[in-house]
Amino acid sequence: MSIDLETAARVAKLARIRVEEEALPALAAEFNTILGFIEQLEEVDVEGVEPMTSVTPMALRRRDDVVTDGDQQDKILKTAPDAREGFFAVPKVVE
């Protein structure tokens, strides 16, 4: 499959990318290069190959989804310029 200038312009328009008329040949050539790579990949026999998410086998660590307050209220409030009764204190902005 080959991408001509008209198709390259249409793809650019669909992608909402402004491409000047003189840049269309280079864009079409890039599209053709990408399609060539895809054709090479289609030649690879992947029968029996399991899909993977990483090149190294990893098992994701899982934890229980438990709602907590983080138990760090005092530590967090130490950084506040003004804290009262366990909350951040801010200036009044509405009369």
TrEMBL record:
It catalyses: L-aspartyl-tRNA(Asn) + L-glutamine + ATP + H2O = L-asparaginyl-tRNA(Asn) + L-glutamate + ADP + phosphate + 2 H(+); L-glutamyl-tRNA(Gln) + L-glutamine + ATP + H2O = L-glutaminyl-tRNA(Gln) + L-glutamate + ADP + phosphate + H(+). Its EC number is 6.3.5.-. It is an enzyme of class 6 (ligase). Keywords: ATP-binding, Ligase, Nucleotide-binding, Protein biosynthesis, Transferase. Pfam families: GatC. One of its GO terms (molecular function) is asparaginyl-tRNA synthase (glutamine-hydrolyzing) activity. GO terms for biological process: glutaminyl-tRNAGln biosynthesis via transamidation; regulation of translational fidelity; translation. InterPro entries: Asp/Glu-ADT_sf_sub_c, GatC. PANTHER family: GLUTAMYL-TRNA(GLN) AMIDOTRANSFERASE SUBUNIT C, MITOCHONDRIAL. Belongs to the GatC family. Heterotrimer of A, B and C subunits. Allows the formation of correctly charged Asn-tRNA(Asn) or Gln-tRNA(Gln) through the transamidation of misacylated Asp-tRNA(Asn) or Glu-tRNA(Gln) in organisms which lack either or both of asparaginyl-tRNA or glutaminyl-tRNA synthetases. The reaction takes place in the presence of glutamine and ATP through an activated phospho-Asp-tRNA(Asn) or phospho-Glu-tRNA(Gln). This is Aspartyl/glutamyl-tRNA(Asn/Gln) amidotransferase subunit C. The gene is gatC.
